[in-house]
Each structure stands twice: as C-alpha cells, then as structure tokens.
Amino acid sequence: MAITSVKNLKEFSTANDRFEGAHTLCPGCAHSMIVRELMNCTDDNLVVTTNTGCLEVSTAVYPFTSWDTSWMHIGFENAASAAGGAEAMYKARKKKGTLKDNDAPVKFVAFGGDGSTFDIGFQWLSGAFERGHDFTYICLDNENYANTGGQRSSATPIGATTSTAQAGTHSYGKKEKKKDIVAIMAAHGAPYVAQLAPNKWKSMAKGFQKALETEGPCFINTVSPCCTEWRFDPKDTISITDLATDTLMFPIYEIIDGHELNILYRPKNVLPVEEYLAAQGRYKHLFKPENKHVIEEIQKNINEYWEMLQRREEARV
Amino acid sequence: MAEKFDLQEREVWDGNYAASQAMRQAKVDVMAAYPITPSTPIVENYGAYVANGYVDGEFVMVESEHAAMSACVGASAAGGRVATATSSQGFALMVEVLYQASGMRLPIVLNVVNRALASPLNVRGDHADMYLGRDSGWIQMDAFNSQEAYDLALCAFKIGENHSVRLPVMVHQDGFITSHTAQNVYPLTDEAAYNFVGEIDPVDDMLDFSRPVTYGAQTEEDWHFEHKAKQHKALMDSVPVIEDVFAEFEKVSGRKYKRVESYMMEDAEVAIVALGTTVETSRVAALRMREQGIKAGVVAPRVFRPFPFDEIRDALENVKSVAVLDRSSPGGAMGAFYNEVSAALYTTENRPLVTNYIYGLGGRDFAVKDAMDIFADQKANADAGHITTDIQQFSGLRGPKLGFFKTKRG
Amino acid sequence: MQDLKLCAQDKRGIHELEAGKDLIGWDEVTQGSVLPSFEGDASNVAHLKQEERCYSDFNSYTATVASWRVKKPVFNIDVCIDCQNCWVWCPDTSIISRDKQMLGIDYDHCKGCEVCVEVCPTNPKSLLMFAEQEDLETALSQWPEKKKKEK
Q1: What is the mean pLDDT of residues B106-124?
Q2: Does A216 touch chain B (CB under 8 A)?
Q3: Is C46 an 8 Å CB contact of chain B?
Q4: Cα B376 → chain centroid
Q5: Is residue A2 a part of any domain in this protein?
Q6: What does the pLDDT read at residue C1?
Q7: Do B168 and B300 sit in the same domain of this protein?
Q8: Please, what's the b/e burial string for B388-407 (b: 16 or more CB within 10 A of its CB; e: otherwise)?
Q9: pLDDT per residue over B194-222, tens digit each?
Q10: How far, in Å, CA of B22 to CA of B193, rounded?
Q11: Cβ–Cβ contact B230 with C under 8 A
Q12: Out of C23, C26, C33, whose CB is closest to B217?
C-alpha cells in the first residue's frame, strides 16, 4: 500500500486532500477532521461507503459531492454490507481481469456514526466482520443521533442529556452505560481494532494506516466531538478532545487479533472527569448537588476501565 | 476457470434449480444471498456450484436479506454482474434496499419465489411479496413454470444491463408449485446461454478510478421529483428492449415470450386475467369451457412491471366480461391487479365488465374447477350485460360467502 | 505577500449551495443521481494538488460556503512556523499548505469555525479572527505583540 508519511505534520501536510470543502457539516465538526485524515493517510484508490448520518447528508447533497473517490451511501444501517459487496466484486473482477486497472491497489472503507454503528447497523457490521471482508470500518462516535437533532444512542454516556433521554426535575439524563463497541468488535476476532482520537493526530493516522494495511475487517472507533449536541463553542473541538483523552473518558488503545491490547496514549497528568464534563452543555445539570453521584459514578467507571485496559495490556492475552 | 457442468438437452428441474442454473450460466460475479423458504434451494444449489468449482464469481452468504440486497447494491455499483434470490418475509426485509437499487439504476437480478406474507405465518405461494415490490421501480417478470423461470432469468440480465434500461429485474415464480415441482426443462448450452446474455458493460463503475463517482446522494424537494420521474421514464421506456430481448431469445431457444401472453383470445367472449401458475390452470379451464361452447380465453402479463397497460387493453377490449384474479390479500381495497387492469380497460371503447376474485392465499389450491366457476360467472355477466355478482369475490374460501360492492352499470 | 490566486483554480467556489439555483429538468439530471467528481481522466488525482485537478461542476470544491461565516481567520505569514496544526485539524479543507508551507486560507470553503486559531501554537498567533469585512492590510496592522508568559 502506498502510504503517506506521518512522521511529522510537515511531512503529512504534503498529502493532497481528497475530501473537499463546501460540505455542509457544522463549523468545527470533528467528523471531517477524521475523514480528511483517513483519506490523507494513503494515496491508494478508495471505495468509501457511508451509513446515513451527519457525514452522509452533508457530503453528498445533490448536485454536489465532497468525495474525490468512489463513494456510496445506501441506508442507515448497511454501509458495511455495501463495502463487503463492493469488495467481493473487486475480488471477482480481479480474478477475471475485468478491472480497468487490474494492478492498482484498492482499499475499502466504511464510515458510520455511533447511531448506525452501535444501534441500527450493528447486525450488518457484525455480519461483515464475521465474513471477513477486507475493509476498514470507522465509527465517528459523537455519542448521539446528531443528524436528527440529538437523540440518545447506545453510545450516549451516562448522565448526558439528549432529546430522548433528557435531564429534568426527575432525571439526570441517560441512565444506561455506553455500549463497549471496541470490546465487542475485538470479540469478533478482527485483526485490528482501535479507539482513536483526532487530537492525537499521529496515533490516529498510524492506526488508520495499520487498519488499511491489515488484511481482513478492521474496526476503529473515533471520538468525534459534536459542538452542536455536546454544546460547546466550535473553536474548542480539539481542546474538548484533549479533555476527553486526558480524563481517560476516551482512552486511546488498539487490540490486535482480538486479544493483544496496546495503550497508545498515557496522559502525563490524568485530569478529573469534571473538567471534561464542565466544558460541555450536555453535562451541565450534573453539577447540581443532587446529581453529584452521577459524576462520581462516571469517574468510577473511568478508573475501573483504565485499570482493566492496563491489566489487559500487561497480561498480553 | 469454472469447471464444465454437464447438461442434457432435456433436464428435469424444479423452478429453483432452473433459476440457479441460469445464474451459473450467466457467470454472475457476485451473489450475495440469505436463505428463505421456498427460494432457499436457489442459494443452496449455487453454493454447490461454488463448492465444486462450477462458478468463478464470489458467493457472499450474508446475515439477512437486507444485507443481501445491500451487498448486491455495493457489488453492482462496483461494475459486475449481480444476482440473488428471496421470498416473502425476506423480500419484505429487503424492501428498503429494493428502492435504493432501482433509484441508483443498478441492474441486479432478483429471483423471487413467491410466498405469502405473515401474519399468520405461511410458507406457501401467493403473490403478496410480488405485490409488495410493485412500486419499487424494478422490472418484474413472471414465470408460470420451471422452463420460464430459467428462460426469464437469462433474459433478465440482458434487459436490466442494457444501457438504455439500467434497472434491476425481478423474476417471479410461484413458491412450491413452480419452485419445488420437477418439470421438463430444455436448457441452453453454457456457451449459447452466455453468448445470449453477453458480457456486462459497466456504467458509473465504482472500481473505475479514472472516474470516481458518488452513489446515493441526497435529493430534497428541489431534485427528488426529477430523479424519480427520470427513473419512471426509464422503466416505461424499457418496453422495446424487453421485446427485443424476447425476440433474440426466441432465436436461440425457439421459445417465444411476449409482454402479455394471450391464450385463445382471438374470439374470446369471457376471459380470466391471472399471474403465475394460475395461468396454466386457467388455460385448461378455458379449454373445458370451450368444450361447453363458451368462448373463454386467458390473458397473463409476462411483464408485470412496466405494467403492460397497452397490451392488456389490446388483449381484452373486445371481451364482454373479464375476471381479474388477485392472489394477494387486498387489505381494504379491490385487488391491486384488478385495479390496474380495470384502469386500462376503462380507456377502451367497449369497456368490458370487470370483476375481481381473491383466491389462493397462503398456497390454497386453485383447481381447474375453480377457474371454470369463474368463467361461468363471466358468461352470466356477459349474457346479462352487467355484473351479476359482487364485484369482489373470494374463490376457494371456506365459510359464508364473502363479497363486496355491486355494479352501478346496467 | 499572501497571494493565493496560484493555488485556486477557476472553478473554486463558483457555485452557491442554496436550492433554487442551476435547477434543471428530469431529462437532464444524472442517471441514478450518480455524481462524477471530476472531468476527464482522474486516475492520478491523489498525486495532484487541488489547483491541478479537473473538477466537475458536481464537486463541492466548485461550491462556496463563504456566506456561512460571520468572522474570518486571517493568516499572518510573518509569525507562522509552518507547524501544520491548522492544516491537520481544519474541518473544511481550507488551509492551503503546499510543500510543507502554510500559504493561507481558502475563503470559499472556510466556515469560520476558529479551530485553526485555537490550535495555532505561535506567540502571537499566526491566525486570528477578524470581522468578515475587514481587509487584510488593516487586520495585519492590528496584529498583537508577543505575549509574555504568565507566571
């Protein structure tokens, strides 16, 4: 595979963008930072499929497309199947020699938001991974159905308010824990699974390259802060992501072949989760005295998860 | 290279086997499928061809019918030949993606082995699934027996992949009655079949990176209407291509297909209009009616979509009384097929009397006697000059007689 | 000094995104609503800079979102260290970097989110937000001095 150098940002910046501007994602949206970086990581031909969601409705609004590669959207749930189908066709045509350029390397990538990945498209994702298609699935995890105005998904964390799990006089927002999608995808035995964040551009770029290079289905969950629904100033997208990774709300790690876990980022100073929560409107209500226990619970969950990750990393099993 | 499959000049195949052989001979590049009764054997047979080296293409066994059609859409946009099969609930699960496939103008071939839709659950043949697809923008062709399931499947690729069509095509056959009944089938040789179908020439190929394309753009109120109108026009305009392909197929097979198959209609006074295996039953009944001196005939759309409004009209305009048979629960209306035939006949000079029979739901047997009774009703209507029964009746239903609406004519 | 004309091709930002413009009839829309991104052979596009590509009119590169902006980032090349932070985190592909050098802002595609200003590490910053109507000269003349580190 032809990869772009990600040794340092200067080298990386020589990549020629294949994700164009004048898409209609919100100003400051992390989705496009992540998508741009993926597409800048390689100069191989790409077939990209995308589930319905913010990315899809903002990058292919007739008569415009922001994609400089082959791209397809079918429905909310089936980008993984579409990528699998296209990948199968690639294999069939390569064998028959009916491709226009039979030697050019092609990579297959599917994007989905957390709603389509964790919820409505989960079956399609799981099926595609079991079948072992050679593709990379990237979840743009903004922890809610942002495209439809911020409803709860199974990626929404405890305590966040969303329009369908609202904080109010009788509620502190979502009551249930976020689904552990990384563990679930690793349990499929996928050769490469990771959780990455755009503020750590280098580990993200390397993770993307590893996924693209690895044969078989690879899964990457990326934290994609949503200024609109998380309620922060668009300029702060990267600083919020810094808080997400430094509080370990989003630990950065990879799991190889379903078992070998490597932590990719260890904050020098782990920050208390309050700092992350306080920076976002969706957690504002947690700072009322009666909801203090929720913050404590979130911190406890973070500590336990980090402990688990470290022990798994040590154990090498 | 695929292994050579030995074929006899005359084979004894059920409809499923016939369809799967057509998929093999067309050298499908990707079949993405999920099993469901009664279409499962199409997928199983294909699996056997894969296991024994008779096909070169990819066989992707997915986790649901929705994923099957989704993978077909991805595969088809990637420029090769694509086919799958399904029935009933699986068809229902696919519906979302059926609309996507036709909207993106992808020439996927779907073998639909017709079966009832639950609830209550039923695995037998009726046309509920076929009707569910009627607004999906696909070409729909209807086989009445195993030979036709094979022939039409070959024609389907050639029609759908034609550049002036570029639409997905369903080939329907009746669950069990066709799909599981072994009949004589005269296949083409592999060479003749493939020569007939030809190579696929991709359009907007996702694997042609000299011309990257975006599939599945969003179109709101400022664009959607124009796209749907263009798609509808393409479906309506597929008629001459369908006719050409049928003519070409006749040359290689000797078997002649028409968009509307008429049987003893030249001088018919009464007619049954039906789909699927019921057509053959009705033909036998028509012969018997003729023995009784009643000029009976049968009209059957071979091509259900685009609906042969013109040919239905031509076939039936001089008949006195017509029975349109719907093998699908009408859900609070006249049968959909009845409505479509009636609309066509309303624009004729003579405006024949048209009545509607709901029959055969969930695989309920429809015998020659049932068809003869329906012809007898039509004869009574013809003699009276008006509809003498309820306009909608139920044939073969137990319990008190069920019917709806009386005529206001005559 | 910051002349970006060389990096913009004729087609950049020539279309408005808003509905009601350039509408054509059913007979002219693309088959299957498929949109080709380029005109001519685009095999080599990953190795071409934007200004070297033959974009089709369907490519959003040819559209503009300039009207979304109320404030704009202004780039001061004299302070910039070419770290490329702004390039990597721009969500709108609006930082024009060529040969490892930051050249300026693509104002057809910038939505004014201010991320580039936030991630700029220089002192003073090499990117600052100004009112949309402010001209470059005036903006540069108002550039702040280097801030002393707070103790």
Answers
A1: 98
A2: no
A3: no
A4: 28
A5: no
A6: 42
A7: no
A8: bbbbbbbbbeeeeeeeeeee
A9: 999 999 999 999 999 999 999 999 999 99
A10: 8
A11: yes
A12: C33
Average pLDDT over every residue of A115-122: 98
Per the structure, the count of domains in chain C is 1
pLDDT of res. A160: 97
Q: Tens digit of pLDDT for each residue in B366-387?
A: 999 999 999 999 999 999 999 9
Q: Give the end of a domain, one of B210, B232, B253.
A: B253
Q: Do B81 and B176 fall within a single domain? A: yes
In CATH, what number is assigned to the domain containing residue C41?
3.30.70.20
Q: What is the CATH number of the domain that holds B123?
A: 3.40.50.970
Per DSSP bridges, beta strands B109-114 and A106-113 are unpaired
B221 interaction partners in chain C (CB closer than 8 Å):
19
Residue B11: per-residue pLDDT: 98
Tell if the CB–CB gap between A100 and B82 is shorter than 8 Å.
no
For residues B226 and B278, state if they share a domain: no
Q: Which residues pair with B324 in a beta bridge?
A: B273, B356
Q: What is the reported pLDDT for C19?
A: 63
Question: What average pLDDT does chain B have?
Answer: 97
Residues lower than pLDDT 70 in chain C: 1-6, 19-21, 150-151
Same-domain status, B148 and B291? no
B268 plus B143 within the same structural domain:
no
**Range scoring the smallest mean pLDDT among A5-9, A11-15, A140-144, B361-365:** A5-9
Peptide bond into A225 cis (omega under 30): no
Q: Can you tell me the distance from the alpha carbon of B390 to that of B374, in angstroms, rounded to the nearest whole number? A: 12
**Domain co-membership, B179 together with B273:** no
- Helix H or strand E encompassing A36: helix A30-40
Q: At what angle do helices B15-25 and B190-197 cross, to 10 degrees?
A: 70
Residue C150 within a domain = no
Name the pLDDT band for A2 (thresholds 50, 70, 90): confident
Residue B266 shares a structural domain with residue B121: no
What CATH number does the domain containing A307 carry? 3.40.50.970
How many residue pairs from chains A and B have C-beta atoms closer than 8 A?
167
Range of the structural domain that residue B337 is part of: 260-404
**Residue of chain B minimizing CA distance to A61:** B218
Same domain? B296 vs B157: no
* Amino acid in position C145: E
Measure the N-to-C terminal CA separation of chain C; round to a whole number of Å: 36
**Is A262 among the domain residues?**
yes
pLDDT above 90: residue A251: yes
Q: Range of A106's domain? A: 9-315
User: Is ipTM strictly over 0.85?
Assistant: yes
Query: The tokens of C76 are what?
Result: 């001061």
Instruction: Please check whether residue C96 lies inside any domain of the structure.
Output: yes
* Residue C64, domain extent: 5-141
CB contact under 8 A, B58 and A67: no
**Chain B residues 172-231 with a CB less than 8 Å from chain A:** 205-210, 212-220, 223, 227
Residue A21 has pLDDT above 90, yes or no: yes
Contact C41 B166 (CB under 8 A): no
Using an 8 Å Cβ cutoff, are A225 and A241 in contact? yes
CB contact under 8 A, C31 and B166: yes
Average pLDDT value over all residues in chain A: 97
Tokens of A90: 């690639």
**Which of B165, B220, B226, B231 is the best residue to mutate to test the C interface, defined by the most C CB atoms within 10 Å of its own CB?**
B226
Q: Considering the domain boundaries, does residue C30 fall inside one? A: yes
Contacts of C117 in chain A (CB under 8 A): 235
- Indicate the number of domains in chain A: 1
How many domains would you assign to chain B? 2
Contact between B150 and B21 under an 8 Å Cβ cutoff? The reply is yes
In a domain, B30, yes or no: yes
Q: Which of B74, C84, B207, B219 has its CA nearest to residue A36?
A: C84
Residue range B15-28: average pLDDT?
98
The mean per-residue pLDDT over the stretch A168-178 comes to 96
Residue A16 lies in a domain: yes
What is the spatial distance between Cα C60 and Cα B150, in angstroms, rounded to a whole number?
46
Distance from CA of C86 to the nearest CA of B (A): 28
Is residue B2 situated within a structural domain?
no
